[in-house]
Amino acid sequence: MGKQTILIVEDEKAALYVLEKSFCLAGFSVYTAESCFEAFELIKKNKFDALLLDYYLKNGTAFDICKKVRSDEHFPKIPIVVLSGYSEFISSAYNACQADAFVEKNKPCSEVILVVKSLLRRIEWERGILSNKSDIMPRQTRRCSNGGN
Q: For the residues of 33-63, what is the DSSP string, one character each?
C-alpha cells in the first residue's frame, strides 16, 4: 500500500506548520487547508484516507465539514479526528461531528499521529487489506500487566 493521504484543516499557521511537517516525517502525503471553504474544495478534488480538523475554523467549525463528509456516500468510513484546545467539545466532536477521535491540542504531534494511524489500521482491517501481518501482536504477548502482580 502506498502513502496514506491526510487533509489537515487548521487555521493557526504555526500549528498547521508543525502538524504538516510531523505527518510528512511520519510518511503521510499531506494536504492542508486553513478554512472550511478551502477544505471543501480539496475534498471535492482529492481522495483522503483521513481528516484532521481543528474544531474552530475560519468561516465555520469541524461540524460543518463533518456534516458534509458524513452525508456523502463516497466518504462513509473516512476517519475523522477533531483537534481542539477546549476539552468541553469532546462530546460535540463525537455526537454532532460523528468524529472517530478527539485529541486536545496540547498533546504532542506524535500522539496525534498514533491516533490517526490506529484509525487507519482499523479501516484496513475492515476492508481486508492489512498488508503486513507482522503489525499484529503475537498471541503470547497480548497481555495486560497489573503492575507486576
A: ESBHHHHHHHHHH---SEEEEESEEBTEEHH
